[in-house]
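Mods, move this if it's the wrong board.
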Amino acid sequence: MSLRSARTLRRWTREVRPTWKLALPIVSGMVGQMLMGLADTLMVGRVGVIPLAAAAFVNAVVHLPLVFSVGLLSSVSVMVSQAYGANDPEEAGEALRHGLLIASVTGVLTVAGSFALLPILHLFGQPTDVIEACTAYLLLLGASMLPLGVAHTCKLFGESLNRPWTPSLILLGGVLLNIFLNWILIYGHWGAPALGLEGAGWATLLARIATAVGLIVFAIRSPALRRFQPLNWFARFQRSWFDRLLSLGWPVATQHLLEVSAFAFAAVMMGWISADAMAAHQVAITCASTTFMFPFGVGMAVCIRVGHVWGAGQFERMRRIGFVGLGMGAGIMAIFGTLFIVGRMPLARLFVTEPEAVALTAQLFLVAALFQVADGLQVVAISALRGLSDVRVPAIIAVLAYWVVAVPAGYYLGFKADLGAVGIWIGLAGGLGTAACGLSWRFHLKSRMTERHSRKPEHPTVVV
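Not the wrong board. Structure tokens:
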């Protein structure tokens, strides 16, 4: 290897450690959040197939406003990280203040939407016993979206300022609280009534309120963040700030909504097949969503680091940070794909006991193994693009991947080709593969263009 090649390789590998250092606590927090859903699925699954199918249906419905809100609030991360790189504390504080109001409004709208859905749940074509079982859980899970949105905004603020560990530990504490409350309220321990699925809803709501309080205290009282807090929390809100946040967040929210709505529609299609199909889908999608949190955390770190170097004017580093992140995401998901193949039967039996549901769940784990790498690539690529403030074209790619490829292919394979639940998941895998290719290529083009037109840094260099 020539000296020049060795130096180039060192420049690229040098980005692995800081990316992983930032990603590790983010991954820990995000996996912790998914463990809350995993615990609900595991503990509700012991009650029966119908409650588990009802949980799958409600999670599919409520997850739509959740991911839309998360996408909308992603602009807080972009603006705070760029402000940090540019050494502009006032900009970071205003992004937090205005972002918290956006989170509160979207949370209230989600609560109202949950009540509005009650009279029309039967229109989704689900089994009658599933609809009857999910009413209280829908209202409780919908109500939990308000504290979750506020907590997520404070979490993004800390992570974007290179303080990710405290938010992650608070989130993990919320997960432990949720599991403990599940044990009490689902099964009726310590003198509490055995509420079943409704108990899981109460546990989630209470745990998310506690998590939100902890993260608000962190954002307001942490000495490490004091310099970046708003100068006046009660100053008049400015429309220009909402315009900036929404112009960045709206396309991301749309992309998130398109992706997750495709999976939500897949859950609805599972209900057209059977309760066993719904239960198998819930188990497999919960496990796949949990592994997804690892590349998602890497993607968040890449987004923040790209924002940092963008704000600092270090344009030549953006491309290296992005492609190193893509390699990390793909490698992590290849490991999980192998685990899904090897351990599909034990995993299935861990969640469900009925033989038909176990067999179908194991088949879905095989399909999930196939799309793990694609899922990792697409989330890191779109996160890197977000750090570059490139959000509109990725949203268009999402439309094509999920609603032109994934959903039609899943419907055709599931019902026309008689492959059932497995066919629906094969369609979803095709959509994720399309997204991975399109978004990775977009980052290649966008980062190369930015690097060629880069200018000398005008801001102080920030260690990232």
